[in-house]
């Protein structure tokens, strides 16, 4: 069996795979361009999900399974994949811990005025009249409440926050205090102090956040986007922030990445930009490869109970 990586993991990972699965043939290419030479032999492709194109799927005449070591799938050539009935799995779920910690971090950053305190430290200014807030008793709304949202909810409940979850069905278990469907969420928006968007990029979520949504929010509300940047139009968000309709926006994802240096988001005082980093820690690839190995063992044995199977028709 030929397994082709379209990226080069570090030597420790390579040695682990080669020594543990000696009957398999492993190729670790530095890029998709280098991997193209081996596509016709590959039965399994391991990718970050952003480099495969229709022509690559056509060239991979023996391909049976694609493992995407990330959660994002919006750049995958699903039409070609579906035609050839290729299995696709991804690393959904590995981001829950780091993204939940990131979300808590920016919420505390906002509530405790950490940016202002850092400026005062820089200026050697001793000022104790900084208006501090608490998370205790406030309300967080998590829109796109899957595995990541549930992890965030567990953490926020430890701060005695009220947590509202929003998903397609409108039903969610503990730790959510309330649940709404995407269609009904407007009635809860005015109650939220923190709105956390974890929406994927799908036809139904592109430009999901519109002006009426932001107008329903409190003037003191904080909008946090850690899902996909195309869930909100840049102009809609800039208009909202320029009009001070909400207090602050923390953005880790953007329609176009890297965010251009001349983009208005960088200059906006009430917008904080981070470089799509909420899910990245040293444990990113180890967690991804745990899922890959679990599925690889099943694949070798001819079993089908794979973890994180993607519906290629829906794209997620």
UniProtKB/TrEMBL annotation:
Leader peptide range in chain numbering: none
UniProtKB keywords: NAD, Oxidoreductase
Matching PANTHER family: 2-HACID_DH_C DOMAIN-CONTAINING PROTEIN, D-ISOMER SPECIFIC 2-HYDROXYACID DEHYDROGENASE NAD-BINDING DOMAIN-CONTAINING PROTEIN
Domain D-isomer specific 2-hydroxyacid dehydrogenase catalytic: 10-304
Family under the similarity heading: Belongs to the D-isomer specific 2-hydroxyacid dehydrogenase family.
InterPro entries (UniProt xref): D-isomer_2_OHA_DH_cat_dom, D-isomer_DH_NAD-bd, NAD(P)-bd_dom_sf
Key word Mitochondrion present: no
Gene Ontology molecular-function annotations: NAD binding; oxidoreductase activity, acting on the CH-OH group of donors, NAD or NADP as acceptor
Sequence ranges assigned to domain D-isomer specific 2-hydroxyacid dehydrogenase NAD-binding in this UniProt record: 105-278
The protein's name in its UniProt record: D-2-hydroxyacid dehydrogenase
């Amino acid at each position: 069996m030929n397994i082709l990586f379209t990226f080069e993991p570090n030597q420790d990972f390579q040695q682990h795979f080669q020594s543990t699965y000696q009957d398999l043939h492993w190729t670790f290419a530095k890029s998709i361009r280098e991997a193209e030479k081996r596509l016709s032999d590959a039965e399994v492709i391991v990718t970050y999900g952003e480099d495969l194109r229709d022509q690559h799927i056509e060239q991979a005449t023996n391909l049976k399974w694609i493992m995407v070591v990330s959660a994002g799938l919006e750049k995958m050539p699903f039409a070609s994949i579906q035609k050839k009935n290729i299995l696709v799995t991804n690393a959904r779920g590995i981001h829950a811990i780091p993204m939940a910690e990131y979300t808590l971090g920016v919420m505390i950053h906002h509530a405790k005025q950490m940016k202002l305190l850092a400026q005062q430290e820089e200026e050697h200014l001793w000022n104790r009249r900084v208006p501090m807030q608490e998370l205790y008793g406030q309300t967080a709304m998590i829109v796109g409440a899957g595995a990541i949202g549930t992890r965030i909810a567990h953490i926020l409940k430890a701060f005695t926050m009220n947590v509202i979850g929003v998903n397609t069905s409108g039903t969610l278990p503990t730790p959510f205090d309330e649940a709404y469907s995407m269609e009904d969420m407007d009635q809860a928006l005015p109650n939220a102090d923190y709105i956390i968007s974890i929406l994927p990029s799908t036809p139904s979520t592109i430009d999901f956040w519109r002006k009426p949504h932001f107008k329903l929010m409190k003037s003191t509300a904080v909008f946090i986007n850690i899902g996909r940047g195309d869930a909100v139009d840049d102009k809609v968000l800039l208009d909202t922030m320029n009009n001070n309709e909400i207090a602050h926006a923390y953005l880790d994802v953007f329609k176009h990445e890297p965010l251009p240096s001349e983009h208005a988001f960088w200059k906006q005082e009430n917008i904080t930009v981070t470089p799509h980093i909420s899910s990245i820690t040293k444990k990113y690839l180890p967690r991804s490869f745990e899922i890959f190995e679990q599925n690889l063992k099943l694949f070798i044995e001819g079993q089908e109970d794979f973890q994180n199977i993607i519906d290629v028709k829906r794209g997620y």
